[in-house]
Design a protein that fits this description.
Layout (H helix, E strand, L loop, with lengths): L18 H26 L12 E4 L18 E6 L2 E6 L10 E3 L2 E3 L6 E2 L5 E3 L8 E7 L2 E10 L6
Antiparallel strand pairs: 1-9, 2-3, 3-8, 4-5, 5-6, 6-7, 8-9
Bound molecules: FE2/S2 (inorganic) cluster.
FE2/S2 (inorganic) cluster binds next to loops.
Length: 159
């Protein structure tokens, strides 16, 4: 309904909004809604389920009844610790192919991912692993054994 010149406008019959103004307001409103939703979405993102990695140098107590040639794997560590007449040594259980964790077996170590096999001293028995499992630095502090997962030593190094 349009008003004639000189006629008083009713507050229930407002002036129609020009199409250009309406579209401008709609675009502005859409942008504001998109911005608000994106902020809300960012706030609702789950927190990363990442825990701090444990220290790479750690102490272990080897079980008294650990038989020669048997592996002891400290809980939560990717290391196999052995004891024999010549001393104590540690071999990494991280496969040198693509990093899966190898399992100890009668033959040494077997990788469940792509079938690599390693001798008890970590040398490759079966590929595709390209290099042996590394031996890790072990030091004795009284009755405690300290293993440094970041320090590799020459194969055969025992303390
Ligand atoms: S990761 Fe061990 S064989 Fe591939």
């Amino acid at each position: 309904m349009t008003t004639k010149p000189g006629e008083k406008k009713s507050r229930f019959d407002p002036e129609p909004m020009p199409r250009r103004d309406f579209l401008g307001l709609a675009a502005l409103g859409s942008m504001a809604a998109a911005f608000a939703l994106s902020i809300f979405g960012m706030l609702k993102l789950p927190k990363a389920a990442v825990s701090a990695s444990p220290a790479k140098k750690f102490n272990v107590t080897i079980p008294e009844n650990l038989a020669e040639g048997d592996a002891f794997t400290p809980p939560g560590r990717n290391v196999a610790v052995f004891r024999d007449a010549e001393g104590v040594y540690a071999i990494s259980t991280v496969c040198t192919h693509l990093g899966c964790i190898v399992k100890t077996s009668a033959a040494g170590f077997d990788c469940p991912c792509h079938g690599s096999g390693f001798q008890k001293d970590g040398t490759v028995r079966k590929g595709p692993a390209p290099i042996p499992l590394p031996w890790l630095k072990v030091s004795k502090n009284g009755g405690t054994i300290t293993i440094d997962e970041e320090s590799k030593v020459k194969t055969g190094t025992k303390v």
